[in-house]
Structure prediction request, 281 residues.
Amino acid sequence: MVEPVIRKAQRDEIHIFLDWAREQGWNPGLHDGECHYAIDPDGWYIAEIGGEVAGTVAVSNYDSDYSHGGFFIIREDMRSRGIGWNLSSTAIRHAGSRNLGIDGVYEMQDKYSSRMGFRFAYRNIRWRGIAKGKSQPSLCSVEDVPFDTLLAYDSLHFPAGRKKFLEKWIRMPESWSSACYDGGVLQGYGIIRRCYEGFKIGPLFADSPVIAERILDDLTSKEEVLGQPFFFDTPEPNRDAVRMALDRGMGEVFGTARMYSREIPPLPISGIYGVTSFEMG
Prediction:
């Protein structure tokens, strides 16, 4: 059996990760790659056999304490050759002593736990619906919020500060944002972006269900989005987020198991209505 060769991916190969994710039905954003690559360019890996791409994984070291893995895909006709083990071992080495978070497909949850020691935190549910929101004039764009304020608020809802990522994410082409910013206090924000199919919300963080509802309505009222399919990834323990999806007639189409290699971060799940991205955390 030919051993796989694991190498770092070049910037112009990032489209392979996005293309393969699309083929898996994960529906990434059209411009996710550039934003994601900026976090940690050294964390993108390709497995090759005989010069052919056989697998991918990306591991983003956000800071000295936290890393998130995604795009873990093995080509179907090259499975059961040890490629997955080689790639996952490379990913774990790149994360080093950091707590490594993943959003794994349900059928792999037991393997991630028993073979790699990951701890299950909760399920994330992907919902699909049609955008029928109503504009909320009292909300503003995240561009109207001081970046330091936005970063501080975002860091309350994520296991690490993600300045490099956020700088690109909020300025991504074909994306729109809404924020509840009143009297110099940020109480919530959300972003919706164009994907291979329709649009996807992520993140959506808010101090209360009422604020989250307003942000969701505003995002799904944008001219380009209205009447189009949109997706919303909610942590299952946030019952208000699940209710918001059900109230809008959305259907469950996919899901992941959020897992961590070390301790489960004490995040305020009640304030996390929409996950940023299964690939980036």
